[in-house]
Write a structure and sequence with these properties.
The protein has 643 residues and is an alpha+beta fold. Helices cover 29% and strands 26% of the residues. It folds into 4 domains: 2-36 and 605-642; 53-141 and 504-593, Up-down Bundle (f41 fragment of flagellin, N-terminal domain); 153-181 and 424-498, no CATH class; 190-414, no CATH class.
Length: 643
């Protein structure tokens, strides 16, 4: 009769237990519905809480990163607005220069125009210094970061169609061609003619040995006469050249020069003469003077050939008569060595060695006395790479063994100029070519305006029709077939010097944290746009004393064009960064939304499920209360037993 026990009401206990569970479930459901969260504390779902907190952290990070990107976009927009203003200023300066470039403008006009240019240049500097965002300067170079190297450039800004032309390419123009002179990174060599050739004033295409090692524009001697190379086709093993002599198969041509000065040479631009045994010369050829002398050794470049044995070059040192002159580094070697690194003593100062990274050639000569061209056959049998050197030696790496094809003699040939300083330094400026009548001939005169120094120089050496020379600012100019009908016509070449790469450790680019992870950044580099940085601080339309009244204005046009290209390039980079920022912000926002959704599925309450559970649990609680009430009334039934 346990159902009637008054010591223990088991039914009431069971009802109370179930009611407590229902009430706890009802309380949890009520909290979820009222807070909107399924997980309010670690007790609700420990692993779920950890995951959701991690997801929320990343959501917050992406949201903040998106805000960073938006701020950076605003900074870039400020910079672009300032650059737009500078663009307008440069366009105005260019218009002024175009005005002053007309010879009808008077000196007074140019003075007034230059006053406006000076004011505009000050405004460019003011904008560069004062443009900032949130206290961070934008355009003064403080945040330029890495600035890539810029090669030297030249533009033929104006040319003239001549009244007559020749068969040479471009000879219908006053300026047939203009190219930079660069120090040759391969030496002059020998080659064999591989077919019979009849002398002709017209270019001929001829098969030769080692065509891939011959430089266009070089001149060789062959049987006491000249071979002038115009072009080379290494794939077919041919050259196109003017042969001034007959040649038989296997005749050897040489471009190796070994001579001496006939008189002393002083420093500066000099017209010098070599001994009569000299090989032919050509504009741009690199020569070494006083080979092996520590005090007077130097390397120069032939600027203009005056005769088969005389040329113009700019010397930095004085040289005595009979000083040795060479156009290549060379030394004899034994056959069969390699592979590996080998050092060769070329003597002299550091300018004697070959440029690091340049190619060295091993030439084998057979069936005759050494050195070439006394042999009956020459061939490049191996090449190596110059990897280092010292004052008196050059180290060359040969990847393969030097083969001995013909049992002949061997010579190592390298380019000149171990030093890293270029032989010809190009500066900002403008070359002017003008056809003149000297009274004795029709020729072309070159002048050069130096932007930085605002000075003008005219070469004393005139150019004849179709001549190629290297008179001013390191530029080869080849003129067309000029006649008396062309007197007074002009052509212009604008030159911009090369600049080295700049890694600005103290001027880092602005770093924008554009993502949620460590190191997820975008660098915003903003170079300086001051007048000096844009290379227009010295532009003027005023002629030097006694100079060409229009050449300075012509130079200013070209210089401003360069500045415009720099500014527009910076604006293009900013535009690209803005596009990237936009994409990055969209990516951040998308990631934040997706991660928020993932976090929501873990932590947020499912209202539909919770309301259903709430209604069910509430009903269960109400029933439990009724059952508990009834269970508590059961002991009262015991009293009926006493009646």
């Amino acid at each position: 009769m346990s159902d009637f026990s008054i010591a223990n009401n088991l039914d009431a206990n069971a009802a109370e237990l179930n009611l407590a569970r229902s009430q706890s479930r009802l309380s949890k459901t009520a909290r979820a519905l009222s807070s909107g969260l399924r997980i309010e504390s670690a007790a609700d779902d420990p692993s779920g809480l950890a995951i959701s907190e991690e997801l929320q952290t990343r959501v917050d990070a992406f949201t903040t990163a998106s805000q960073n990107v938006t701020t950076a976009q605003n900074a870039a927009a400020v910079a672009d607005g300032a650059l737009s203003t500078i663009t307008g200023i440069l366009l105005r300066i260019r218009a002024i220069a175009v005005n002053a470039a007309s010879s009808i403008s008077s000196d007074r006009d140019r003075t007034d125009l230059q006053a406006e240019i000076a004011s505009l240049l000050h405004e460019i500097d003011r904008i560069s210094e004062n443009t900032n965002f949130n206290g961070q300067p934008l355009l003064d170079g403080s945040h330029s970061g890495f600035v890539a190297a810029q090669p030297a450039t030249l533009d033929v800004t104006a040319n003239t169609v001549l009244s007559s032309a020749s068969s040479a390419s471009g000879a219908g123009l006053l300026l047939a061609s203009a190219t930079f002179a660069t120090q040759a990174l391969q030496p002059t060599i020998y080659f064999n003619v591989l077919q019979n050739v009849t002398a002709s004033a017209s270019p001929q295409t001829v098969s030769v040995s080692d065509a891939q090692y011959i430089q266009p524009g070089s001149i060789f001697t062959l049987n006491g006469a000249t071979v002038t190379v115009q072009s080379v086709d290494p794939a077919n093993g041919t050259i196109t050249a003017v042969f001034s002599t007959n040649a038989a198969t296997n005749d050897v041509a040489s471009s190796i020069l070994s001579s001496t000065f006939t008189s002393a040479v002083s420093a500066g631009t000099q017209l010098v003469t070599l001994a009569a045994s000299a090989q032919p010369l050509y504009a741009g050829e690199t020569l070494q003077v006083d080979y092996g002398s520590f005090s007077t050794n130097e390397v120069v470049v032939v600027q203009k050939v005056m005769s088969p044995t005389s040329f113009v070059a700019t010397f930095t040192k004085a040289h005595a008569a009979n000083a040795a002159v060479f156009n290549v580094n060379g030394t004899y070697i034994s056959s069969g060595f390699g592979p590996g690194n080998f050092s060769f003593n070329f003597g002299g100062t550091p300018t004697d060695g070959a440029p690091i990274g340049s190619t060295a050639y091993v030439v084998e000569t057979t069936n005759g006395s050494f050195p070439p061209p006394n042999g009956s056959h020459t061939q490049v049998v191996a090449t190596g790479t110059v990897i280092g050197g010292s004052v008196s030696s050059t180290t060359i790496d040969f990847p393969t063994k030097i083969p001995n094809y013909f049992g002949g003699s061997f010579e190592v040939l390298t380019a000149l100029g171990y030093g890293t300083t270029p032989l010809i330094n190009t500066v900002d400026g403008t070359i002017k070519l003008q056809v003149v009548n000297t009274g004795a001939s029709i020729a072309v005169q070159e002048s050069f305006y130096d932007t930085a120094t605002q000075t003008e120089v005219t070469s004393p050496y005139l150019l004849a029709s179709n001549e190629r020379a290297l008179l001013l600012d390191g530029v080869y100019t080849t003129v067309g077939n000029v006649t008396a009908n062309d007197v007074g016509t002009t052509a212009y070449v604008k030159i911009h010097q090369a600049t080295a790469a700049i890694t600005a450790a103290n001027q880092p680019a602005l770093s924008v944290q554009s993502g949620a992870e460590e190191g997820d950044t975008i660098a915003l580099g903003l170079p300086s746009v001051s007048a000096a940085s844009l290379r227009v601080s010295n532009v003027t339309v005023l002629a030097p004393q006694g100079g060409d009244p229009t050449l300075a204005a012509q130079d200013t046009i070209g210089q401003v064009d360069f500045a415009l290209a720099s500014v527009l390039g910076t604006r293009a980079q900013l535009g690209a960064i803005l596009v990237r920022f936009s994409e990055d912000a969209q990516s951040d926002d998308t990631a934040a939304a997706n991660l928020q959704g993932a976090e929501s599925t873990i932590r947020d309450a499912n209202v539909g499920t919770e309301t259903t559970d709430y209604a069910l649990t509430e009903t269960t609680v109400q029933i439990g209360l009724q059952v508990l009430s009834q269970a508590n009334s059961l002991p009262e039934q015991v009293l009926k037993l006493f009646r």
